[in-house]
Amino acid sequence: MRSQLRAFAVLGGSSLVSLFVSLVSMKAYALLIGPRGVGEIGVIQGLASLTTLLAGFGIGTGVVRLGTPMLAAGDVVGAKRLFSHARILTVGTSIATILIASLVRGPLASSMLGEPSWAWVAVTAVLSGTLGAWATLELGLLNARHAVGAIARATVVGSLGAATIGIGLIWGYGVRAVPIAIAFGQLWTAVVAGFMSIRVERAAKREAPMSVHASSPDDIGLLRFGAGYTLSMFLGVGVQYALPAVVVHRLGFDAAGQVRAALTISTAYLALFLTAMARDYYPRVCAAPSVDALNRIVNTQLGILLLLGAPLVLVLQVGSPVAVTILFSRSFAPAVEVMRWQLVGELFKFASWTFAYVILGRLPSSTYLLSETTAGATLITGVWILVSRAGIAGVGLAYAASYCCYFLLTMALVRRLGVRISATNGRYLAVSLGSAVLIALLQTVAVVPPAISVSIQIMMAAAAVAIAGRVALRSGLVSRSALHGLRAGPQA
Asked: What is the pTM of this model?
């Protein structure tokens, strides 16, 4: 428990810095280029992120799944060969992605960016995405070695440099510099991640004894895992990357900017938790020796996420109008309509992503494909239908409905492994979800005077914070000794 909390604190601390940098960047972009410009950033970054997913081919995650057990068994040479082959494969997939995108740049610009004349912008976004794939691989290599401190440093330095580059270029050249700013930001991130990875590898080579027996890298296994993972992510998370393009086609660039603002505010802080989950929790899930150990890991992680995240979600729900004005500007007020229901979906995300990593690490790739396809299909269908009926608020409603379905499905799938939500986590999740839904209803339907509605919302958010503290102490999920252990922090 102590080591899990310490890793969570280190990675969460680096993500806190990244969160602050992200919010400062978006504030600058909001003032410099307005909602339409922020919408353009959203669609370009969406294409870049989708390219990162395709060009990366799941190799960064695959090396964690295959390399972590090898390192745990002392097969240092075999792991090193695996990592070397992973880099070669990533170079090949990136080159192939750039060549294909160059051939279809016109249709790509029309479908993903909403502007047929933006062919060169589409190619630049794809190049940015391949740089992102390289950064993802290098962070995956660090993750396989469980180099938590190095991951944290790479995250902080990468986000600071990328933000500085982006703000500087857009301040000097306006909205036309957006594609180049994104590309140079990704280049910086890839360089930093690569530098940290090489540095950790050299240190490990000096300290670790050589293997007596070195296994051969399972390139076919890596590619097989990558193919299933990429398809699953493309149909799941990839749909979210394409969401700005859907909004542009349905409502225009200004609406896409509003959605981008809502997503930035409500999901940026989740990096505090989800980065720790990906970099620390996933290797633990892969290495769990028994069902009982897996259950403890899952419920500890879910408990930490809920106790820290649920009160933040409710507070953010209540303060969303103020947050939008402060972090962006008054011209982004419509973003509140998206946030109020999208934040309900974030609570479902805490639990569903906890289970999704178990599915990814312990069940066949086809099972993960099923879960991600369901999530993607429900989200894109919901947005397409609800936006025409409820306007921009339909994006938030679709988001909440999608993650509700995803939560129910992932919970059912992990039961096959014997994983169950503990009674404490189940009760607190139910209370948090009920509170979030009620707050969203009070903000949507004027059933009581505004002053009374706001008072009720504030009391519910305050109660959630108090309950979180009480649950943490009584359940033993957080103890004074565990919190004291956070001070030392894990070593890279």
From this structure: 0.74
